[in-house]
Structure formats: structure tokens, C-alpha cells
Design a protein that fits this description.
This protein is an all-alpha fold. Helix 7 crosses helix 17. It is globular, with a radius of gyration of 22 Å.
């Protein structure tokens, strides 16, 4: 696509601050949600610490990728099952840090292997006929989150009003992106989320005045917890970093060698499974910025950055990091791939995690507002995957089988579950639907092409 700002471009400082803020609000809702979910499992995880961890993890990633891959790393939802399992087995704060360390080392080890043997096999193993629908699946698999947030504001009760707020947010983004001035087109999410927030606030104030709970969409609880009672911590407060909690808990005294082995069995498979999404994300981002990131900076470096970035992020925030689709979608929609914007956003997250009012403000954004924004973000990811299929001959039944196998297993949510964890009452390992879809695609590609790795079948099936 045509970029307004390329990766190496440096916008004016004032613009960079605004662009960075847009990246921040695009990734924050999901990044802050992960520690909230972890807290519901029994350990107290501070969203501000996770925000700091995401920021420093992103800087680590940018360092390893030589400032060539403009994407933000945020808290990964894929690890939630692992967090629940390790917490359920009383491995504590240190158990989570060690677990993410194992998962991150999987990336590092695979990166070392790729550095030795090269990454040329990736394009053969995952040609456009496979990676296109896989990228589309990433966006489509997230769509349920966007619509769910719109329909119930992150709760359990369906509401037409929250759908309206989400729709207003989405349409405001569309208008800003398509009809706005040149500068407005670069910040459609700030405009859209701002409009949605104000609309939700107006409805909430009317609802409070009328005693109508259904209209009270925006919660002021985050502000109450921050400012009541008022103290210095209401303005500036050091996040509750995960490693400090592990030290206070003296987790190293409670964990045995057998416990560490159990932690490895929980987290290592997730690192392997996540490889598929890592490659797909970088293929997608590379397609958006017109660069082959698998070759330069290289898949080995992106894996090093993602793996070490997750480890560092977990030490501070408790959550493993991953390349964020919201960030990639933001780059695609705005045409701003400036790495300086990502670096500034990362530093901004680290700095602002110490400022209580900012964290309270972000936590107060209604889920329906973020849902409306995510309709655009996730939609662009799906569309960018479909764009990769433009050069694939879909009149050829060989390609049709590959694409159909991927889309149906992925959208249908086919997973592979192994073992049973009595503590969590769930499987020990779950291979995600995205990974299963990728496996189906690769195997189908081998079957229809007689065991050969073929980019896409050019011969039309005459049957």
C-alpha cells in the first residue's frame, strides 16, 4: 500500500507525539485487560505494570529488529490458559515469570536455528495461498471480541445502546479517515474513540439524571479508586512490578525442580504454537509496508525480539507480549509506518504507567467504544490477508481446497486438546484454531502438489 510515512521517516515532533498516542490507545484496552483477567484467577496483576512491560518489551523488539519492523508488542491473550494453570497449581508470581521465560526461549532457540539454516523455507512452506487466508483468519478470529464488546460493553447484558455507541465510534473513524483533512486522516482513532467516549459520557450523565441504569455506559470506578481518598498516589504511583511481587512472595523458596518442569510443560508448547501467528503477523505487516520482513531484518531477529521482549515484559508486567494486530491495523489504516512513532508510543506507555490519572482515564474507556474501533482495526487485518490472495488463481481447484480448508477450520474454531488438568478442569495443552488451520493448509498444499512445496498451483484442474 501507499504509505504517508515510511518506516525510516521522521515526522515533526508534535505530529510524532500525536501518532504515538494513537498507537497507545489502539493497543491499551487489550493490553490492560489481560492483567485484569489474570487477577480474577487469584494473583493480583497491575494493569499499569503490564503497560510498562509492553512498552519496554516493544523497545527490546525494535532493538533486535534493527528499527525495521513498526509494530507494538502488547499483552498476549494466548497465554491466559497457561496463567490459569500455573496459578491453579500455586506456582505464584515467579511461576508465571519462569513460564514466560520458557516460552520466550522457544522463540530464541527457533531463531538460532533459522539464523543457521536460513528462512527461505518459510516462503515455500507458507506461500500466499496459505498465508493470505491465515492473516484473514487473524482478523476474523478477533471479530467476536469487537462485536461482543459492542453488544454488551464487556459484560453479560445485551444492549442496543452500547451497539449504538460502538457504531458511532466506528463511523467517526470512517469519516475521519475518508473525509477528514490530511492531518485528520492520520489520527482517525483518536477522533473516533474521542467521539465515542463523549457520546457515552453524555448518555451516562443523562442516565444518571433520569435514574436509568441502561444508559449508564461509562463507569467512573477507575477515577474513584484513583482519587478517593486523594493522596500522592492519586497523581504518581510506581506500578506494582511483577518481579517485586515475586521477591515479596519469596517464590524461589516454594518452587521445586519438579514444579519448574511442570511450568515448562505448560508454557513451552504455547511458544511453539504461537510461531504460526508470529510469521503471519510479520508477513501481513511486510505486505502493508511493502517490505519482506522475513528476509530483512529476518525471521531470526523478529523471533529474538518477540521472545526476549516477552521475557522482559513479563518480568515487569507479568504478561507475555506479542505483536499486536491492533497496531498493525493502525499502520494499515493511517499509512503511518514510522518506527519513531512506535518507539515514542513505547516510551510513552512506560512513562504514563506511573501517572495514575492517565491509567484511570484509559481504564474508563467503555468496551463498546473500543469495540467500535476494533471493527475497523480487525477488519483491515482480514482485508489485508484477502489482498494477498489477489495473485492466487482461485479458479484452480487445488488452491480452492487449500483456502477452504484453512478458512473453515479456522472460522469454525477447530482446536486440538491434549490431556486434562484437574486444577483448571481443562486441557493441559490446546492447539489454537489458527494453528490447526495452518496445519490443514500446509498438509493440503502438500497433498494436492504431490508432496512438493509449491507457492500456488498454476495449473487449472480440468475435472
Amino acid at each position: 500500500m501507499k504509505l504517508v510515512y515510511d518506516v525510516s521517516d521522521k515526522p515533526k515532533f508534535s505530529k510524532t507525539i500525536v501518532f504515538a498516542f494513537q498507537q497507545m490507545i489502539a493497543i491499551m484496552a487489550a493490553t490492560l485487560l489481560v492483567p485484569m483477567i489474570v487477577s480474577s484467577y487469584g494473583l493480583v496483576a497491575d494493569p499499569a505494570a503490564a503497560l510498562f512491560g509492553a512498552g519496554i518489551g516493544t523497545l527490546v523488539y525494535i532493538f533486535f529488529t534493527k528499527k525495521k519492523s513498526p509494530v507494538f508488542l502488547g499483552s498476549s491473550f494466548t497465554f491466559l490458559g497457561a496463567y490459569a494453570a500455573s496459578i491453579g497449581q500455586n506456582f505464584g508470581y515467579l511461576g508465571i515469570i519462569i513460564g514466560v521465560l520458557f516460552a520466550g526461549l522457544v522463540y530464541v532457540v527457533i531463531g538460532i536455528i533459522i539464523k543457521a539454516v536460513g528462512s527461505g523455507w518459510v516462503n515455500k512452506l507458507m506461500p500466499a495461498v496459505i498465508i493470505g487466508p491465515i492473516v484473514a483468519l487473524i482478523g476474523l478470529s478477533l471479530s467476536g471480541t469487537a462485536t461482543g464488546w459492542m453488544a454488551s460493553n464487556g459484560g453479560d447484558n445485551y444492549s442496543l445502546l452500547t451497539i449504538l455507541v460502538g457504531a458511532v465510534t466506528f463511523f467517526a473513524i470512517v469519516i475521519a479517515s475518508v473525509k477528514g483533512s490530511q492531518n485528520i486522516k492520520l489520527i482517525p482513532f483518536i477522533v473516533g474513540i474521542g467521539v465515542g467516549y463523549v457520546f457515552a459520557l453524555i448518555l451516562t450523565l443523562i442516565g444518571k439524571a433520569a435514574g436509568n441504569e441502561a444508559m449508564q455506559i461509562l463507569s467512573f470506578d477507575s477515577f474513584k479508586s484513583a482519587f478517593v481518598p486523594f493522596s500522592v498516589a492519586s497523581i504518581v504511583k510506581m506500578p506494582d512490578f511483577f518481579f517485586l511481587k515475586a521477591i515479596q512472595e519469596k517464590g524461589w523458596e516454594a518452587l521445586s525442580a519438579a514444579d519448574i518442569g511442570s511450568i515448562a510443560l505448560i508454557y513451552v508448547p504455547i511458544g511453539v504454537v504461537e510461531l504460526a501467528q508470529h510469521i503471519a503477523d510479520h508477513k501481513n505487516l511486510g505486505n502493508i509496508i511493502n517490505k519482506d520482513l522475513i528476509t530483512d531484518p529476518g525471521l531470526d531477529n523478529t523471533l529474538f525480539g518477540d521472545g526476549v521482549g516477552s521475557i522482559v515484559g513479563s518480568i515487569f508486567g507479568g504478561a507475555a507480549n506479542t505483536t499486536y494486530g491492533e497496531s498493525i491495523g493502525c499502520v494499515a489504516i493511517t499509512g503511518n509506518a514510522s518506527i519513531i512513532s512506535i518507539i515514542t508510543a513505547a516510551i510513552g506507555c512506560m512513562v504514563l504507567s506511573f501517572f495514575t490519572p492517565f491509567v484511570a482515564l484509559i481504564n474508563s474507556i467503555p468496551k463498546c467504544v473500543m469495540g467500535g474501533a476494533c471493527v475497523a482495526l480487525y477488519g483491515f487485518i482480514a482485508v489485508s490477508g484477502l489482498q494477498m490472495l489477489r495473485k492466487v488463481d482461485l479458479n484452480n481447484s487445488k488452491n480452492l481446497f487449500i483456502v477452504s480448508g484453512i478458512l473453515v477450520t479456522g472460522i469454525g474454531g477447530l482446536t486440538l486438546q491434549f490431556g486434562f488438568n484437574e486444577m483448571t478442569q481443562g486441557p493441559v495443552l490446546t492447539v489454537t484454531s489458527l494453528a490447526v488451520a495452518l496445519i490443514f493448509g500446509i498438509i493440503t498444499n502438500l497433498i494436492v502438489n504431490d508432496g512438493k512445496l509449491v507457492a500456488d498451483s498454476s495449473e487449472t484442474d480440468k475435472k
